[in-house]
Amino acid sequence: MPMEYLQGLASDELPLMESDAINIDKLRVLRAAGMVEVKLPAVDAPQQKAHVLYITGLGRATLRAGGWPASAPRLQPHCDLEPSFD
Q1: Distance between CA 86 and CA 24 in Å, rounded?
Q2: Are 39 and 50 in contact (CB under 8 A)?
Q3: Which residue among 19, 21, 59, 86 is least crowded, i.e. fewest CB within 10 A of its CB?
Q4: Domain coordinates of the chain in residue numbers?
C-alpha cells in the first residue's frame, strides 16, 4: 500500500532513487495526494527511475494522524491487561 511505502520512506535518508516499478506506481499515488515531492519518469519511459526528493508536511502529518510515527516502525498492538500468574 502507498501509506506503508510512505512509512518506509520516512525512515530512509532522502533524497533517493527508486527503480522498482511497483514502488514508482505507489509514488505516483502519493504525489497525486500531495504527500511526497518526486521527479517521476514518463509512464512509457524505457528506464523507470524516480527521484524521491522529500516527504511533504501533509505526508508527515498524515503519518502522525494515522498512528505511524515518521521516525519509528509501526507500533505493535498494545494490551492493557495484566499478565496472569496462575
Answers
A1: 52
A2: yes
A3: 86
A4: 2-65
